[in-house]
Amino acid sequence: MLSKPKRSILPFLICSISFFIILFFGHPIYNSGDDVYLLYLLSGGFGDAPTNLLHYNYGMHPLFGWFIKNLFTQFPDINWYSLILYALHFISCWILLKIFLATKRLYEAVLIFCLIFFVFEGQFLLNLTFSNTALIVAMAGILLLLQESSKTIPDKKIIIVSITLIAISTMLRLHTLIPIALIASPIIIFRLSQKRFFLFYSICIACIVIFFLNYFQQQYYSDKIPDWKTEEAYRQTALSYYNIPKIKQADKAHMPISFLDNGLFFDKQFLSVDKIQEATQQTHISSALSEKKSSDFLYWAFINSRIFWFASLIMFLMTMLRSNKTERILNFSCLIIMLSLLAYLLFFKKLPFYLIPALILFYILLTTILPEKQIDSFTRFYRINKTILTFLIFVTLAWSIMRIQKAISFNKEKNDLFICAWKELNAHPDKLFVITDDHFPMDHFSVWDSPKKYAIKNLLYKDQLLNNTYQSIYNRFSITSPKDFINNPAIIFTGRKIIEMEDYYKTVWKTDVHFSQKDTSFVCIEVYQLKF
């Protein structure tokens, strides 16, 4: 893949130093409640045995979970979840750098890698999730496949590695592969038109592997989890409510809407599929632009990601200047698809915070494998081009370092909040803390901490309720129905007072209840009780 002088330890050393800088001096946290939820299930951090029955369709494959679960069983003091995700990030970055070294001059390859690593990957490493891991692994797999299949005689071992990476990415989160594949489609179609049969066969094999992996996942859950399909249908209905543009000033006093917005899924007979669909229809708008303050919405969407747009502009200008007509068309086509995807998700669906840098990053990566015109390195054009590229990249790197420092300070502050909240939970093991507003700082768990050290056996929140993993907690506190939450000294509600909960008990259980005064003995969390 690399020329002989470059086939050395250089890519490994550069990646190792880059990762060391971010992970040693940074303060990485998960910043995603889904990841902490999976971590605690896989490790047994909720007080039950470690399990790979994660109730996640299209995400965290049970075979992948089985491997992590067994590592936690044997060595519970180590956070294997973080180590494996970081290992996948490292392998992906190492592969990407090798591709840069194979397609660019050494100086430019290292410079572009630094831009990509500190502007994009550094943010992913400081806020580790299985979603951004799936994305970077898919990027490495697709880029490796495109790079190798462009050769007259591709290396079959490298093709297998690329298919394996793509399959691993889908085992982490299947849906993240869709936008990545769409952005790469112009280059894929162009290569297939050149009769690159290895690419066609590889895509077919990858699709077959992905299909059978997903089929196995669904069969595994159906065999192990009673009535899993009904459970999944309910979950998808709830997710459809969250994944569409909604009226920001919706009628919060409407109980189902309030319960959905605050993650209150403790009574699924009340919050039924029909009521969720009705709430979705009541709050759904055609697009985010329908809101009166759409200009503010667009402004902040751009401001919060402007460094990523600036980096993409640098690479767009530099690659367009060095490309012939065909490569320019491919470059522009990938850019248009990337922009269209972001606009569609932003206006008509839900645009997760990690997708903006991820899709921009993949566009940049695709531009690096497009052939360049042969330019003499001593020409005036090349020298000017190189000087401008270097200057702009160093400006962006300085900007990224300031952003990374800001992220580190934010992560430290949020992780301190989690530790403080956990200590208050841990000080009352005989109490069950029920989250009322979906804002408990679970997502600020440090990637280096072990769930064994911060075991949580007395917390009930949205993910456990929505994914039907709460029964052991109910058993532990002798709860049979939501009625047992009322006037129960063992039950403490944590978060904002949701007045609609009082209406719920009056309507469903014919009982007048009210929230007590805030318990001032708790510093980091707000706690109340529901009393007659």
Q: How would you describe this structure to a colleague?
A:
- By secondary structure, the chain is mainly alpha-helical.
- It is built from 20 helices and six strands.
- The strands form two sheets. The chain has a four-stranded mixed beta sheet with strand order 2-1-3-5.
- Helix 4 packs antiparallel against helix 5, helix 4 runs parallel beside helix 6 and helix 6 runs parallel beside helix 16.
- The model has no long low-confidence stretch (mean pLDDT 91).
Which structural class do the helices and strands define? mainly alpha
Give the oligomer, counting copies of the same chain as homo and different chains as hetero.
Answer: single chain
Unreliable spans = none
Major sheet description: 4 strands, mixed
Number of strands: 6
Strand order of the largest sheet: 2-1-3-5
Keywords:
532 residues; two-stranded antiparallel sheet
Can you lay out the helices and strands and say which pair or pack?
Elements: H1 10-25, H2 33-43, H3 62-74, H4 80-103, H5 106-126, H6 130-149, H7 156-172, H8 177-193, H9 197-224, H10 228-242, H11 255-261, H12 273-283, H13 294-303, H14 306-322, H15 325-348, H16 355-368, H17 380-426, E1 432-435, E2 459-460, H18 462-466, H19 471-476, E3 491-494, H20 499-508, E4 514-515, E5 527-528, E6 530-531
Parallel strand pairs: 1-2, 1-3
Antiparallel strand pairs: 3-5, 4-6
Helix pairs in contact: 1-4, 1-5, 4-5, 4-6, 5-17, 6-7, 6-8, 6-16, 7-9, 8-15, 8-16, 10-12, 14-16, 14-17, 15-16
